[in-house]
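User: I'm writing a short report section on ligand binding and want a predicted complex to refer to. Could you take this sequence and magnesium ion and write out the structure as tokens? A short remark afterwards would be nice.
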Amino acid sequence: MKLLIVDDEIEICDFLKSFFEERNYEVKAASSGQAALTAVEQFKPQVVLLDIKMPVMDGIQVLGAVKKKFPRTKVIMVTALETRDKIEECLRLGADNYITKPLSLEYLENDVREKIESLAGSNTS
Ligand SMILES: [Mg+2]
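Assistant: Sure. The structure tokens for the complex follow:
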């Protein structure tokens, strides 16, 4: 179970990394869009938790690039107070779900597990 956490707030990365590591996930974190793309290439996560609002390269750009190259990678968008337009754009670009901050960890963990299980039965990408 490989999970990549992407957020420009380091504390959120650290917190979520610990949370999922305690639950036996293999976790990497990236604090920028560019670092996220490198991590997706090298680490090949099954699920990416992707913050929308980041400087330079935002989550929407990262989402587009990830889905283009690795369409089977599940991407869950993490949003603060995004507009409906932005969320719709993410879904159009192939986002598999979105959750809003403040995060419900129980919901988040269930969703990550569900995404990984949905990959388990099918061929690898
Ligand atoms: Mg952010």
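A remark for your report: The beta strands are 2-6, 26-30, 47-51, 74-79, 97-100. The longest strand covers residues 74-79.
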